[in-house]
Q: What sequence folds into this?
């Protein structure tokens, strides 16, 4: 029997985007799914009423008593949302699924019974929901190891591939809860919690498997957390700190390739160099200098 897949959707703000995300779940060509919206908006009742109006018994709502924030809400989802479902996807509230996501993830789960999580590629869309050009996403797709078939990440080669460039779009991950067990995202991170979690799973001997084809739409816009944390450089602070931490863990394991990639931080430095060039093109020399100085940090 195919494993059941559930969605947990942590919601903080943006009711218009929420409507799109929920509609994309309801449009799945495999109807065997459930959805739990975790309301962290601080406006009790509004989201629940909105969902109830849909009249869909597959959709439920959990309300946080107080605003927990991103990572604690993600962890509550892993622990409490749809406990009967073997697979759980943390759908971001401003993203959308393509209609075959459930079907393709369940099929991949059947092919990869030992994987702790499954993932797929994603199309990039903008605030208006239309396709958006994204150099960084194009580069990440190029960095996926191999050129055919599904992708399997395990051990040092898997970690080294992620450190070369984290091509796994976090909200596409469908976690196999029995294998995940009590492992959770670490609340000390605001931006790199996904890479940290995947690295810890690989260090623990788990594997992750993915599809090269896109079955998810990831929205990039100026109001999302990634954009905000890039603008104030807190994202890069976290990335440098995590890479340093992973270098030490890889060294202790004797994973020399992974250690070297962690210490070099090539993908991070290239991103900062690209930001510096963009700032210069916009006539922002101060911003360009800050990005360049950060790129040269040890």
A:
């Amino acid at each position: 029997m195919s494993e059941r897949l559930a969605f947990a959707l942590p919601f903080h703000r943006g009711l218009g985007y929420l409507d799109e995300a929920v509609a994309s779940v309801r449009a799945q060509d495999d109807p065997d799914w459930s959805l739990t919206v975790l309301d962290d908006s601080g406006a009790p009742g509004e989201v629940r009423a909105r969902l109830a109006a849909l009249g869909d018994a597959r959709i439920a709502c959990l309300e946080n008593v107080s605003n927990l924030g991103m990572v604690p809400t993600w962890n509550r989802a892993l622990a409490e949302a749809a406990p009967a479902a073997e697979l759980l996807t943390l759908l971001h509230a401003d993203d959308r699924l393509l209609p075959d996501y459930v079907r393709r993830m369940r099929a991949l789960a059947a092919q990869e019974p030992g994987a702790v999580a499954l993932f797929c590629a994603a199309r990039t869309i903008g605030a208006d929901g239309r396709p958006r050009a994204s150099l960084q996403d194009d580069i990440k797709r190029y960095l996926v190891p191999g050129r055919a078939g599904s992708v399997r990440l395990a051990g040092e080669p898997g970690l080294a591939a992620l450190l070369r460039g984290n091509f796994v779009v976090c909200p596409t991950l469908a976690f196999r809860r029995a294998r995940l067990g009590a492992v959770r995202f670490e609340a000390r991170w605001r931006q790199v919690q996904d890479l940290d979690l995947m690295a810890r799973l690989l260090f623990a001997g788990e594997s992750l498997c993915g599809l090269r084809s896109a079955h998810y739409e990831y929205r990039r816009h100026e109001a999302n957390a990634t954009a905000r944390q890039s603008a104030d450089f807190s994202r890069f602070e976290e990335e440098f700190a995590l890479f340093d931490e992973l270098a030490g863990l890889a060294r202790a394991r004797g994973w020399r390739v992974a250690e070297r990639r962690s210490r070099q931080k090539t993908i991070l430095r290239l991103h900062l160099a690209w930001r510096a060039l963009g700032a210069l093109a916009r006539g922002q020399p101060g911003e360009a200098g800050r990005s360049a100085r950060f790129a040269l940090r040890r």
